Write a sequence for this structure.
């Protein structure tokens, strides 16, 4: 059997989020929620980073929360003034099929933000590694 570096890259754009406002502005709370969601679906958290943006005349600043996974990563970007969020989940599938976990993580994060509209994209990445076999 030929080894592959295939991965699954999921993105979602969330609009008119009905969640509590702190999920859009509190970087520490959001980071913890992302870590818990990843662990709940069986992914392995290995690092994290978050950043809070300054308020603007349009409203409070958003946040970016990034969680590094043994399987790859998840990133969340919020725009509280628009009540919008973008989600980015990527998992590698070299030694195990992590697609169900990626989809489960995306679903948990979507539920957290309670959007009225979602635009999702799914991309299979990678392919055979030339000359390598298992």
């Amino acid at each position: 059997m030929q080894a592959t570096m295939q991965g699954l890259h999921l993105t979602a754009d969330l609009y008119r989020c009905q969640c509590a406002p702190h999920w859009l502005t509190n970087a520490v709370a959001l980071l913890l929620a992302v870590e818990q969601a990843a662990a709940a679906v069986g992914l392995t958290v290995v690092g994290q980073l978050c950043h809070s943006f300054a308020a603007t005349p349009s409203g409070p600043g958003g946040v970016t929360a990034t969680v590094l996974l043994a399987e790859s990563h998840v990133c969340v970007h919020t725009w509280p003034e628009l009540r919008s969020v973008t989600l980015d989940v990527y998992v590698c599938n070299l030694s195990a099929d992590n697609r169900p976990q990626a989809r489960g993580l995306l679903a948990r994060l979507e539920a957290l933000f309670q959007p009225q509209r979602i635009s999702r994209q799914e991309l299979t990445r990678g392919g055979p590694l030339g000359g390598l076999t298992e």
In short: The two ends are 6 Å apart (CA to CA). The beta strands are 2-4, 7-15, 45-52, 63-69, 72-79, 84-92, 117-125, 128-133. The first strand starts at residue 2 and ends at 4.
